[in-house]
Design brief:
single chain, 145 residues, alpha/beta, three-stranded parallel sheet, 4 helices, 37% helix
Length: 145
């Protein structure tokens, strides 16, 4: 009767509160960011404009290269890019004519400073993309297509 109905209603309200609370939690950050691996899936088409848009923090984080922990320097920038190209089997001009835009996430308030700054990351991605024949159109938190 009435006691059972109240018990069911209380249980439903509790589950609803838990569901709403869970839905409002910030999304879990990805354990890995494999942007370099995504490049092999891009198929340039000389007959039309091929564009790639990455919505990301540009911090490659994979077993082969972790830019969240490895600081990019003048000395290691080229060797790191070359090592990744060799490991991944990139071919010369495999992204010929492709245009790439990075739309970066905005820096979080009170968030830990990243190991690599915007300039270092842009240099790395420009080097990688240009070595594959692609053009880096934009590397910014604002969308520029």
């Amino acid at each position: 009767g009435e006691v059972r109905s109240r018990s069911i209603l209380t249980a439903v309200r509790q589950r609803a509160r838990e569901a709403v609370s869970q839905a409002l939690q910030p999304p879990e950050r990805a354990r890995q960011t494999r942007l370099l691996a995504a490049l092999k899936r891009v198929i340039p088409d000389p007959a039309r404009d091929t564009r790639v848009v990455f919505l990301t923090d540009a911090q490659e984080s994979s077993p082969a290269l972790d830019l969240e922990r490895t600081r990019l320097t003048d000395e290691n920038l080229v060797p790191l890019a070359q090592a990744e190209g060799t490991r991944a089997g990139w071919r010369p001009n495999m992204l010929g004519g492709v245009r790439v835009t990075f739309v970066l996430d905005s820096p979080g308030v009170n968030r830990k400073r990243p190991v690599n700054d915007h300039t270092s990351l842009e240099r790395f991605w420009r080097l990688v993309l240009e070595s594959l024949g692609a053009e880096l159109l934009s590397f910014d938190s604002r969308i520029a297509l």
